[in-house]
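Please produce the structure of this protein holding magnesium ion.
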Amino acid sequence: MINWRRCDLLAAPKVDITVHFRTAHKHVGTGWRMKDTSSFAKKKVVIFDLDGTLSESKSDLDNEMAKLIAGLLERRCVAVTSGCSFHQFQTQFLGKLPAAANRSNLFLFPTCSASGYYFDGKKGRFYRAYSNLMPKRAVKKILRSFEEVFADIKYPRPKRTYGPVFEDRGSQLTFSALGQEAPLELKRMWDPDQKKRLMIRRHLRQKLPNFEITIGGTTSIDVTRKGVNKTLCVRKLSQRLHVNKKEMLFVGDALFKGGNDYIMKSTRIQCIPVSGPADTKELVTRIIQSNPD
Ligand SMILES: [Mg+2]
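Below is the modeled complex.
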């Protein structure tokens, strides 16, 4: 169990967390600034969404955010849950953290928490602690259902796609309308109000009542086994770290109804909505400043 008073982490090399905000980076205030900092700054575990919260959609963590997360890891346990695969976690997130960052306090939950990866300090690498793999026949059924829905609603397939439109991520099947490697500008324009994906999901739910179907990122729909969704990380962290829900905090950019973080509210842990990575940086800075060495 983690010794919270010593926080184990303090033995880690100090990382310079000085961040210079780009004042030109506009973002909408989301209300957390109005709260008393003590309501969230003392939480032992901070769980983040990835895309749109720590980084732009499917983009690398930038240096400022990487330094801030390293600073937070010296003081708190940090978890990240996202619909993306562990491979994406490695390239987009892990690979960008400073070498000195204390990974022992980092917990990763790719594919909407359908799997969890914890750090093995002796081997110096992350290992898969659990997974809810989907059987091949389930993957086939999901793919077939998508095709049936596309026919039913006369889905206008994009003229051009970039990389695979469907990806079997082991514990999750992900549909990305424009393909996995589509440019962010195009993805942002494809379904800004989620109407296209909400319609597809509504039809899919009738064909796949025994699966979780969530809207993720900018163009994605994620399908996992029933009962497997982002909230699973809360139970896993509670078991692993012996913390209760009052000691956990979730930070995400899609906590609104219909957003892919909305389900986290059902866990009753404190949830803080952010408008994007710039907003998250300010929040993390506030937590760090409230918890000096
Ligand atoms: Mg997000």
